[in-house]
Inverse folding.
């Protein structure tokens, strides 16, 4: 057997590369992961006929094709693992508690849901299947956004074509109802599910792109932030806060808590789960309400006190 000829990645260049990747998209590689970048990026050196990683770093920073190269390394470094009906407790909380709550409180019949870091699309399609199965939303305008930073993953999501691996926890009932069999091992999502989902390329660390997204009632961002450092996690969580409606819910993966990150979210306790919620702002008080507020020390209303003051003038 021949050992593959690997160009070594020196520690100083590893740290430059790793910091660039962290600042760009939040993915964090500690020093022990040097060999991961070394292995995965070696092919890129050969592809561009570069001598070593110093030249590769220069290429990534300054070459006219650097944007394409960044997309390529994002596709190589991101973990796009996902499947339909992943995290059933959270999905049950979403469909049995969060959706009915939104339905009751909404003044318009519009709901926006975002699956942020949706990889190959199984999560947003699962949400649609749950909503269609639940029923009661037929005359509602429900929009689901699925986004990811990986172009390769989004390509699969848009194609809506899946193999067995994506169905590892899917009941056969859903496969029969919402998919057509394409070839022996491939299934394609039905149009009534697909038409409710829009896919878009969004880097969760890019606040400018996120500000262009409509206000969201629910954001799912599961199994994405585990790969980030605390600083990037905080930035993403703040970006989400800005575009959630008051009272909107953020659902993170079960291993991703915000304990180490100070945030303005409150915790909403559900039957079998907890989600983060953007607090509802108290309604501004009317002039009448303000005038009828009592002075804590005198027990009389502001209005009465003003009347008394005017009478003694
Ligand atoms: C493990 S998948 C999670 C998929 C799905 N949410 C789930 O729970 O099954 C993580 C996804 O996050 C995406 N991701 C990583 N960093 C990102 C970033 N800065 N912006 C947007 N997506 C990102 C990756 O491309 C990957 O597809």
């Amino acid at each position: 057997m021949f050992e593959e000829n690997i160009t070594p990645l020196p520690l100083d260049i590893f740290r430059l590369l790793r910091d660039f990747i962290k600042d760009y998209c939040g993915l964090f590689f500690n020093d022990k992961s040097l060999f991961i970048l070394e292995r995965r990026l070696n092919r890129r050196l050969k592809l561009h006929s570069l001598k070593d990683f110093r030249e590769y770093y220069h290429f990534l920073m300054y070459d006219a094709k650097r944007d394409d190269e960044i997309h390529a390394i994002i596709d190589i470094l991101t973990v796009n693992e996902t499947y339909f009906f992943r995290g059933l407790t959270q999905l049950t909380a979403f469909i049995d508690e969060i959706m009915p709550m939104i339905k009751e409180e909404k003044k318009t019949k519009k709901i926006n849901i975002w699956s942020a870091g949706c990889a190959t699309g199984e999560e947003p399609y699962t949400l649609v299947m749950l909503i269609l199965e639940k029923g009661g939303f037929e005359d509602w305008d429900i929009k689901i956004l699925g986004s990811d930073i990986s172009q390769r993953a989004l390509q699969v999501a848009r194609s809506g074509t899946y193999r067995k691996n994506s169905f590892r926890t899917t009941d056969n009932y859903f496969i029969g109802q919402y998919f057509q069999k394409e070839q022996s091992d491939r299934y394609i999502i039905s149009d009534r599910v697909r038409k409710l989902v829009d896919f878009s390329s969004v880097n969760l660390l890019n606040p400018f792109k996120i500000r262009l997204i409509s206000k969201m009632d629910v954001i799912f961002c599961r199994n994405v932030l585990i790969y980030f450092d605390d600083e990037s996690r905080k930035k993403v969580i703040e970006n989400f806060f800005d575009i959630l409606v008051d009272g909107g819910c953020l659902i993170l993966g079960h291993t991703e808590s915000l304990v180490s990150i100070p945030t303005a979210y409150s915790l909403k306790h559900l039957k079998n789960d907890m989600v983060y919620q953007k607090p509802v702002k108290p309604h501004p008080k009317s002039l009448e309400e303000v005038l009828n507020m009592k002075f804590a020390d005198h027990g009389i209303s502001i209005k009465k006190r003003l009347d008394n003051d005017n009478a003694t003038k």
About this structure: The pocket of S-adenosylmethionine is lined by residues 25-27, 78-82, 86, 117-119, 123, 148-150, 153, 202-205, 222-224 (CB under 6 Å).
